[in-house]
């Protein structure tokens, strides 16, 4: 009897020792005796330990006898409580566990679960906000402040604030140079202000744009407040938005009802601006760009037709009569030649000078908001609309302009754009910092206007001529050869 009791206590002590893990030798690494399932030593352990109280189960246990089992006999005088799920069910039937359970080896000795699948690598971005230059240990966080220019409601807010600032400091005449964006309100924040303005001129066409979407998604035109009520209730919201408790922020703008038409079709311009510094402000204007045309003739009788009023390529390429070979774009050089032939050189020069004013004033409006870093840069895509009076209007600014090509000509333009962007950023350190032209980029602002003269800000024949050549001939290859041929390698 004494021998049998000693044997029981010995096996109980062995089981207790196996159930008590020692501290791991290293983070994520367990001692060998804790890795029984992985090392195959469980067979030796099962052969040594007696097994008792097998429960019936169709799934075999690691010990080979099936069912759930315990290590060694139960100590005398102690009865382990039966789990709640093992208690007898009504009618005498016994509720089984969710799955077979075996304690032939400690819980921490079971085979490790397979490692989680590695996360896929992040998708490569195109030209994101303020890329890091050489010598930058980490990419500074600029996305939040970059939205001050690229997000529609923030852009309008900053332009309104900058216009009031100019009116206080320089007078109304200088502030009037900021009147290049339509009257705009943010919904639902400024809904009551919008209703007051709407009732002043009933019948005016307005356009609604979501502040956080692109490619023409979520845009619609209206002339009645009833359309706003329907949208607010959920008439103009997607199924995903209907499930959300917060309504998406929109901007509502007065629609430009007299756009300049070519062939009866509406168009807008995409112009590229490269900013290499905000403090001081240093901006480059690319000579190339393009005009995006709608596929349908313009009319105000059908404000629900997106193919008439939206010029986004993502919208127009789904039109029934869209030709992918011809596309719906003109190079900006073609547009400038057309306008010069129709209206003369003088008016076209004024038009493009007004566009330069849009670029500079919009950048100045966020100059004190965006945190500047000398090791970073930014490529913007400006969307400009021209009306019948040859007045340019700023529609929006894109911080990540699309680099997808819709034609061979478009492909070459964007490849040259990226190549010249890297030349201006000068990762090799070959530039002197005094250049006013690099490839297709012309320096238009360097803490002040830049002239076409020999020195920055110098006069040409007694008159100031801005260093802008938007829509002019782009002999970038010749210029790059001369530039880098004269510089030390």
Q: Could you report the average pLDDT, rounded to the nearest whole number? A: 75
- Topology order in helix (H) and strand (E) letters: HHHEEEHHHEHEEHHEEEEHHEHHEEHEEH
Structural class: alpha+beta
Radius of gyration: 36 Å
Major pleated sheet: 9 strands, antiparallel
- Helix coverage percent of residues? 25-40%
* Oligomeric state as shown: single chain
Give the CA-based shape.
extended
Q: Uncertain regions: pLDDT < 50 for 5+ in a row?
A: 22-75, 83-110, 122-144, 457-462
Query: Can you count the helices?
Result: 15
Q: Based on DSSP secondary structure assignment, what is the total number of beta strands?
A: 15
Assess the beta-strand content as a share of residues: 15-25%
Distance separating the two termini: 96 Å
């Amino acid at each position: 009897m004494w021998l049998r009791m000693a044997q029981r206590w010995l096996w109980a002590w062995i089981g207790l020792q196996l159930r008590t893990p020692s501290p791991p030798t290293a983070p994520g690494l367990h001692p060998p005796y804790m890795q029984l399932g992985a090392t195959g030593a469980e067979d030796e352990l099962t052969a040594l330990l007696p097994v008792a109280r097998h429960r019936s189960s169709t799934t075999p246990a690691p010990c080979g006898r099936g069912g759930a089992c315990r290590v060694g006999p139960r100590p005398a005088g102690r009865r382990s409580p039966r789990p709640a799920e093992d208690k007898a069910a009504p009618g005498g039937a016994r509720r089984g566990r969710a799955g077979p359970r075996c304690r032939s080896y400690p819980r921490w000795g079971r085979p490790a679960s397979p490692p989680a699948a590695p996360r896929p690598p992040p998708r490569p971005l195109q030209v994101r906000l303020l890329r890091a230059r050489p010598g930058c240990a980490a990419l500074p966080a600029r996305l939040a402040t970059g939205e001050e220019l690229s997000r529609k409601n923030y852009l309008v807010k900053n332009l309104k604030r900058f216009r009031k600032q100019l009116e206080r400091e320089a007078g109304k005449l200088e502030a009037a140079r900021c009147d290049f964006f339509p009257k705009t309100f943010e919904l639902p924040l400024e809904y009551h202000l919008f209703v007051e303005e709407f009732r002043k001129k009933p019948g005016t066409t307005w356009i609604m744009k979501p502040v956080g979407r692109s490619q023409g998604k979520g845009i619609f035109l209206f002339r009645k407040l009833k359309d706003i009520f329907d949208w607010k209730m959920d008439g103009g919201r997607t199924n995903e938005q209907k499930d959300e408790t917060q309504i998406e922020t929109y901007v509502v703008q007065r629609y430009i009802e007299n756009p300049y038409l070519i062939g009866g079709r509406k168009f807008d311009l995409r112009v590229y601006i490269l900013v290499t510094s905000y403090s001081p402000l240093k901006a480059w204007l690319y000579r190339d760009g393009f005009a995006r045309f709608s596929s349908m003739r313009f009319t105000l009788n059908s404000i629900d037709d997106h193919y008439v009023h939206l010029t986004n390529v993502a919208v127009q390429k789904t039109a029934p009569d869209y030709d992918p070979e011809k596309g719906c774009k003109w190079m900006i050089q073609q547009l400038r030649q057309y306008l010069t032939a129709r209206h003369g050189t003088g008016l076209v020069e004024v038009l493009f000078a007004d566009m330069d004013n849009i670029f500079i004033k919009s950048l100045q409006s966020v100059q004190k908001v965006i945190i500047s870093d000398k090791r970073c840069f930014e490529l913007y895509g400006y969307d400009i609309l021209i009306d019948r009076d040859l007045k340019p209007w700023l529609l929006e600014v894109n911080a990540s302009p699309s680099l997808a090509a819709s034609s061979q000509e478009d492909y070459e333009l964007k490849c040259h754009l990226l190549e010249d962007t890297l030349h201006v950023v000068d990762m090799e350190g070959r530039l002197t910092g005094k250049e006013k032209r690099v490839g297709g980029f012309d320096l238009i602002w360097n803490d002040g206007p830049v002239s076409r003269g020999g020195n920055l800000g110098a006069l040409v024949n007694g008159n100031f001529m801005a260093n802008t050549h938007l829509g002019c001939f782009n002999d970038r290859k010749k210029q790059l050869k001369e530039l880098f041929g004269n510089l030390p390698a």
